[in-house]
Write a structure and sequence with these properties.
By secondary structure, the chain is α/β, with parallel strands linked by helices. It is built from nine helices and eight strands.
Length: 254
């Protein structure tokens, strides 16, 4: 069931399906919540699944001014308060994972379990040259066409949004391991073995969050949710539907 909700200055598109505890899916940058299609069928067996298109993405229009992780986190908090009506499991991919971290820090009462898929916590964790790929004509043309299929702003506006997102990603996020240590939600960190951020950065994210677990999807890149969706969402589903396993030889968790 698709709807719109006014979140401050942003008329935000979202849909919800299924029954049970709420799960909010937070998509990556340059794309929209359609990228979560492979996740929805499995998750709706156990959960009420919400997908929202963030400001300037998909069916949600752009608004004047820059886009930042802070603004998107504010929008997400408003969505949880006004639409979900309370706490939800957050599953964030790429930019959506950063947004999920910020929400968990600012409003821990709104986050049950947290899943970070291919997210960084500081922009210096990105590998050199990663953002340059988005400035090439072919990926820009392909992404713009996909954007234009649903955006109320039209295909030509994609380059405006893309420049906002690139400016954001060059300077944000700027979280520290000390800040991440304040996250209280049980957290699953997922990444590719050939991701856009260094493996060392992913491990630092995992180690910084006290109640965290780590999964590396072999043979994948930053587009792991497209390359191996079955593997990714099987791990996500197991994490969301089960309690933590009591390990026999804990070291980090001892």
């Amino acid at each position: 069931m698709a709807k719109d909700v006014q979140l401050g200055a942003v008329r935000t598109w979202y849909d919800e399906t299924g029954d049970g505890d709420p799960v909010l899916l937070l998509h990556g940058g340059f794309v929209d919540s359609r990228s979560f299609e492979p996740a929805v069928a499995g998750l709706t067996e156990h959960f009420r699944v919400y997908r929202m298109d963030r400001r300037g993405h998909g069916r949600t229009p752009d608004v004047a001014g820059p886009i930042s992780y802070d603004l998107m986190a504010q929008d997400t908090i408003a969505f949880l308060d006004e639409v979900v009506g309370g706490a939800a499991h957050l599953v964030g991919y790429s930019d959506g994972a950063v947004v999920a971290l910020l929400v968990a820090l600012r409003r821990p009462d709104l986050v049950r379990k947290l899943v970070s898929i291919s997210g960084d916590f500081h922009h210096d964790g990105l590998l050199p040259g990663v953002l340059d790929g988005f400035t090439h004509e072919e990926p820009m043309r392909r992404l713009a066409a996909r954007y234009g299929e649903v955006s109320p702003d039209g295909e030509a506006h994609f380059r405006v949004v893309a420049e906002k997102l690139l400016s954001m990603a060059r300077a944000e996020p700027t979280l520290t391991v000390e800040e991440l240590a304040r996250i209280t939600s049980r957290t699953l960190v997922i990444a590719a073995d050939d991701d856009a951020m260094s493996l060392e950065h992913t491990i630092a994210l995992y180690r910084a969050i006290p109640d965290s677990e780590l999964a590396i999807i072999p043979g994948t890149s930053h587009l792991l949710v497209v390359e191996k969706p079955v593997e990714v969402y099987r791990v996500v589903g197991t994490f969301l539907t089960t309690d933590a396993t009591r390990t026999w030889q804990p070291i980090r968790r001892a």
